[in-house]
Amino acid sequence: MEKINFKLLIATVLLISACSNLRVRKDLDTTATSAKIPEQAELKKEDASVVNSIPTTNPNTPVVMMNKTLPRFGFIFSGGGAKAWAHIGVLKELQKMKWPVHAVAGFEWGSVVAATYAENLSANEVEWEMSKLKEFDKTDTFIKSVFEKKSTSDLKVPFVCPSLNLNKQTYFLLNRGQLDQLIPFCIPQPPVTAAHAQSVALMSDVAGLAQYLRSTGANRIILVNVMASQNNPRSFVKDFSSAENILWVQSAALMSKKPTGVDDIIEINLDDYGIKDLDKRRDLIAKGAEISYNQIRKLATKYGL
Predict the structure, then answer these.
(1) Distance between CA atoms of 231 and 275, rounded to whole angstroms?
(2) pLDDT digit string (tens) for 207-233?
(3) Can you say whether residue 111 is alpha, beta or left, with left for phi > 0 and alpha for psi between -120 and 50 degrees?
(4) 223 three-class SS
(5) Cα Dmax for the chain
(6) Arithmetic mean of pLDDT, 58-82
(7) Lowest mean pLDDT segment, chosen from 51-55, 232-236, 290-294
(8) Which of 10, 17, 220, 243 could lock 71 by a disulfide, CB 3.0 to 4.6 Å apart?
(9) Angle at which helices 109-120 and 179-186 cross, to 10°
């Protein structure tokens, strides 16, 4: 009788041990499954959606990556003529830090940087495409070579740029259609580039662009301002009191302090360069990277990147 009890005891112990191991394995499987965050897959699908689509989810819903919550960044690239090439250097630094970019916008030549970046999300591609412009007088040829047969529906992230129609006295946010037809309305700003079809770039409504970027789902808006300065008085053109210079100074002044809707500003002081210094593009790119380096790392710490 004692032998039978001993066998039963051994069988019972083995059964309890097996059940315990089974429960542990089930727990491990459950943990592995829960690591595949459903929201992450949905957000990736949404991030790949075409421009102009307004998300059905709450725009303030943060990006979730492996239990880490990250903001959705929208970047606004200021105008600046040749100074806009410094944006490429800033993009290179952002790329090194692997910043998640949800949407982009741009003023004047900053709009070209934004649109080109939205195509491939690659700073190197932006540099390559922007290198095709040899002279501002050949902008039409440049636009055709870079954007022909390309549509906003093919962009990887939402994009928008503003334009002011002088004839209709109407301000437009352009974000839909063929890029080679859209971009020419957002670039012109005398004396760098002449008006296109009675339309010029509007470089003052930062708040409007910020609001649009938020409508796409971005919840942290960063302005990259290559018109920052320490000089006073400022002169973008030779004739300080000309209407053209006044317009440039006004646009720069509006970006000098944090505009409504903007969370942070990356300021690039390029006082040593002019708005027509296209022959110094390589220096401008390098300067953009150099000056933005510490600012980007400080913001990366702020946002937990």
Answers:
(1) 15
(2) 999 999 999 999 999 999 999 887 766
(3) alpha
(4) strand
(5) 113
(6) 74
(7) 51-55
(8) 220
(9) 150
Give me the residue label for tokens 């690591």: 35
Average pLDDT over residues 134-150: 95
Report the 3 state secondary structure along 243-303: HHHHHHHHHHHHHHCCCCCCCEEEEEECCCCCCCCHHHHHHHHHHHHHHHHHHHHHHHHHC
* 80 contacts 86 by C-beta, under 8 angstroms: yes
Type of residue at 290:
E
Residue 115, C-beta contacts closer than 8 angstroms, at least 6 positions apart:
104, 106, 147, 155, 159, 161, 179, 183
Block residue for tokens 């075409």: 50
- Whether 188 contacts 194, CB under 8 Å: yes
Which element (helix H / strand E) includes 106? strand 101-106
Beta strand pairing call for 63-65 and 68-70:
antiparallel
Tell me whether strands 63-65 and 264-269 are parallel, antiparallel or unpaired.
unpaired
Tokens coding 153: 């529906």
Q: Round to whole Å and give the CA distance between 254 and 262.
A: 12
**Angle, CA 282 vertex, CA 281 and CA 285 arms, to 5°:** 85
What secondary structure does DSSP assign to 45-98, as a single string? HHHTSPTTPPPSS-TTPPEEETTEEE--EEEEE---GGGGGHHHHHHHHHHHTT
| C-alpha–C-alpha distance, residues 103 and 52, integer Å | 11
Query: What is the C-alpha separation between 170 and 188, in angstroms, rounded?
Result: 15
